[in-house]
Amino acid sequence: GGAPPETHRIVQHFFLEQKRINISIFDIPPKAYQCDLRKRSQIYSGAKRVHKQIADIDILINNAGIVSGKSLLDLSDEAISATFDVNTLALFWTTKAFLPAMIQRNAGHS
Predict the structure, then answer these.
(1) pTM of the model
(2) Tens digits of residue pLDDT in 82-100
């Protein structure tokens, strides 16, 4: 998932209780947008849905990750690819999807 319990508590405390900004977090209700972070097209289409249905976001928290706990030689090529896709590339794709609106408004953090 995109946000473990501690991240949800941070968001709840600092942002939702103050009700000063719009927040959308992949994988956390009530406004959940699921996408396969291994697939760039799903990240981009998910970002478009957020922009259309909610608004431009102010803070992007990239908190998804894959941890296998296995040594390199015990991992399949597919597992290595999935780990790289989610832990590295998804960071770039989500930032690329949301940062332009932040720059345009001169507001927000990624």
Answers:
(1) 0.67
(2) 999 999 999 999 999 999 9
